[in-house]
Amino acid sequence: MDISNYLYLSAILFTIGIAGVLIRRNAIIVFMSIELMLNAANLAFVTFSRTNGGLDGQVASFFTMVIAACEVVVGLAIIVTIYRTRRSASVDDASLLKR
Amino acid sequence: MNNTNLIGLLIALPLFSAGLLLLLGKAANSWGHIFATLISISTFVIGLLEFLAMHKRANENRALTDHLFEWVHVGGLQVDAALLLDQLSIAFVLLITGVGSLIHIYSIAYMEHDHDRRRFFAYLNLFIAAMLLLVLGNSYLNLYVGWEGVGLASYLLIGFWNQRPAYATAARKAFIANRVGDVGLSLAIMIAFTQFGSVTFDGVKAGIPHASSAAILGLGAMLLLAATGKSAQFPLQSWLGDAMAGPTPVSALIHAATMVTAGVYLIVRSNFVFDASSIARTLVVIVGVITLLFGAIIGTAKDDIKKALAASTMSQIGYMVLASGLGPIGYAFAIMHLLTHGFFKAGMFLGAGSVMHGTNDQVDMRKFGNLRKYMPITAITFGLGYLAILGVPPFAGFYSKDKIIATAFNTTGTTGVIIGLAALLGAGITAFYMTRVIVMTFAGKARWEDEVHPHESPALMWIPMAILAIGSISAGFLLSWGGALVNWLAPVVNSTHLAENKDRISPILLTLITLGVVLFGVIWAVIKYREVPESAPEKVSIFTRAARKDLYQDAFNEAVLMKPGNQLVLTVDEIDQKVVDGAVNGVGKMVSGLSFGIRKIQNGYVRSYALVMSVGLLMLLLAVWLVKL
Minimal Cα distance from A98: which residue of B? Predict the structure, then answer.
């Protein structure tokens, strides 16, 4: 199977992620889109690792997963707190710092 | 006893006392005046000891130098704080501390009812200390410190009653007029440094023969400018009349012992400069002649007894400056007149203070009259000072003023005749206005107001007056006994250097002529002021009107110096507001406007930040791709 198909898939997933971050207001969806972009990058890493026969790409993708897990913990905690105080999970409502 | 160490003590004692009295504040109120007076008397005793010790030494060993500490050592400029006590300094030290002490004693009684007497005495001591530093410094820079100190002390004392705005203004006027002169002195110091690499008297003296005549002339002219400021000479004389705002003992101190004598001291101390430049000497003579006539004319029209005496001081200092422009022998006569003037003018000022003391601080002579009956001691001491200033033999002024007139006459060429006649005329006018003062104050009918009860002053006031009166009688005779002062000063000013000029007129004839002129002035004044109207007559000649206005010197200063100065300041202020402030404020406004615009980018929407970031990333990738292509 042609290696470039994996890369196309990765690019498509990344684009969907970007579109999700830019278009959706719900913080949870934005969060999921970010995860999608991270995994698109992971897919690219693994693909290149396979092509070159090294293990570096695989190691990098493990790091990404660990960081993504940490991010989920902190990010979800923030989103939940914001929701509790403001009764809204919209990212546009959380713009208090500009004032 | 080590005499050198005592020189520093001369300055340190009154300075310490002034500082102590000012720092202690009210705690020193009860004993401050006694303490300050004792300090002043002790400096006089030290001065006397120094004088006796100096007298015993041989002529060439008389000058002492006390090296205090290294002061300014920068590159080529090496100045040490050092004191020089020589024949000229000691004469001043004795005058300053002696007359100063008498004035201290007098002030104890005169200022008795002033709640700020302690502060007054602190300033008096400061004045004495500054003046002693002025005459004891061994370089122009050391002298300058004392010079400024004298300016400060005179400012503080003239404005002592500064709750009266007019008095505070008078103090500022004196200070500013003095500043103009100070510029002259600082320029002179700079010229001395660039030309001779030294600012000590010895260093400048040693450099004079090698200097260009232009440099010497510049130095002399700047020193003369300095002297005109401090000594109230033309064209900087206008502050002296207003300086009468201070308490009367201050006027006595300023006019007799300190301050105005500083200019004469500076010229005489710099005799080597003026000896080397005949143009500078001519300038000195011109200033002296103008001032002696100027002061005398102003004196004839003043109804304020203190202002009349102030004008008289101006005129007498004019004589001294004239004398110091007449070459080596003139310096000695200038100092002689300065010393005798110190006695009789201090005596007369204290007498004026005594008159004011007895008449509820009245100064208008039209409100006096017949006071001799009620204040006999004041009248007698004042009268003795009067005879001395007129130059009636054998009183002090006769020995000093006649010598100056004779020296002026004996100058070569027509100049001698002109300045001689001017000096003679000045003597006549002096006789006129002093007689006017005496007649209006002590003779004639009583003209004071009903609530005034003239009375003689207490002993603390008349004893100093009596001592000064004795000085007015004897000082001239003692100082010229066998040429005492001339020989004494010879090592400093070269005064025994024989004048090449022959006597134009025989001395006896000249004395008779002078006495004739003086007598004429006296008789004229007696006739004219037999009747004194209670208010100054309105219909007077244009000369009297001009004299009442100080010969329009204030108006001149205002029109020529003050108004353009004001205009300049206003213009500069305008430029500062519009151009400088405009530029600074403009930059500020621009930055703040810019940031106002940029601030809008920070809208707080996370998604717009993400968009900007994505677009940026995309553009970056595109750029990389294009480059690779």
Answer: B604
